[in-house]
Inverse folding.
């Protein structure tokens, strides 16, 4: 199995990556794609990938992090803001030269209001969304220039996302190499994916969300890839066990990790009424096509 989206570059896995990978391999997961969300985590993803076989990196700036540029544009001259954005994009571009980098991501548009965020004063407003669009387009151009796949993060922004990627100048060069990461149960996204052969990443929420379960049932097996989004979206039954520990006030924290992709695969196989082996075989094949690497 392959976990196509796991943040082994996040602090939750500091000094634990080797143990996490060992547990994953024991569960049958032997390939991992680690996406960046900013300059620091992108560099860390590349470092992990270049250090270990079976790990691949994606690099990019997550749309939520556009706030740092928005703040700078308010405090400084526009020229300074543009200079900072240009400098960071140049850093991302340098990382794309690594042979272990298979994608630009995760990048996109995000209009969700986060309650837990280091940007305590951020707001979803037209300026915030417009800056996200600019950054998204700039990073799409890098994916095309360097012939990398594209990992799209779209949250409560299906309309904006599809208007950007619907252009033939984007769809044609990236044909067969785009994935909607942790795809929302959105019919417009699904219709677009079906029309343009865009892959859909399915995560642990399929094990506890009836809405997501119904959505996944509609996705052709040919477009499915597996991902955990570790350390987030802990699947069942681990999610309920964690919540039970919280109620007893002896919860020490339990992060999702790549080994749990097996639980996701089992749930999808159940939904699709196929064998787990068939599901694993097809999603592995899909991943090979999506990211253009031999497994």
């Amino acid at each position: 199995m392959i976990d196509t989206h796991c943040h082994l570059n996040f602090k939750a896995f500091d000094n634990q990556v080797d143990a996490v990978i060992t547990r994953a391999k024991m569960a049958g997961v032997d390939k991992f794609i680690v996406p960046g969300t900013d300059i620091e985590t992108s560099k860390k993803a590349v470092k992990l990938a270049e250090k270990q076989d079976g790990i691949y990196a994606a690099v990019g700036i997550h749309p939520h992090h556009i706030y740092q540029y928005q703040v700078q544009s308010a405090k400084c001259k526009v020229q300074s803001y543009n200079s900072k954005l240009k400098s960071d994009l140049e850093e991302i571009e340098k990382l794309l030269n690594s042979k272990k980098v298979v994608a630009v991501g995760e990048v996109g548009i995000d209009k969700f209001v986060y309650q837990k965020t280091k940007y305590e004063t951020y707001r979803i407003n037209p300026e915030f969304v417009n800056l996200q669009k600019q950054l998204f387009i700039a990073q799409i151009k890098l994916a095309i220039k360097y012939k990398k796949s594209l990992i799209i993060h779209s949250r409560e922004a299906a309309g904006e996302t599809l208007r950007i990627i619907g252009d033939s100048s984007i769809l044609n060069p990236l044909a067969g190499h785009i994935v909607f990461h942790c795809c929302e149960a959105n019919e417009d996204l699904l219709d677009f994916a079906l029309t343009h052969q865009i892959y859909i990443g399915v995560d642990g929420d399929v094990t506890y969300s009836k809405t997501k379960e119904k959505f996944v049932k509609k996705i052709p097996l040919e477009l499915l890839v597996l991902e955990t989004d570790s350390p987030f979206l802990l699947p069942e039954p681990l999610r309920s066990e964690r919540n039970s520990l919280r109620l007893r006030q002896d919860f020490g924290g339990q992060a999702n990790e790549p080994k749990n992709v097996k639980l996701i695969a089992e749930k999808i196989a159940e939904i699709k009424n196929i064998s787990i082996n068939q599901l694993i075989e097809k999603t592995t094949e899909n991943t090979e096509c999506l990211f253009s690497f031999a497994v």
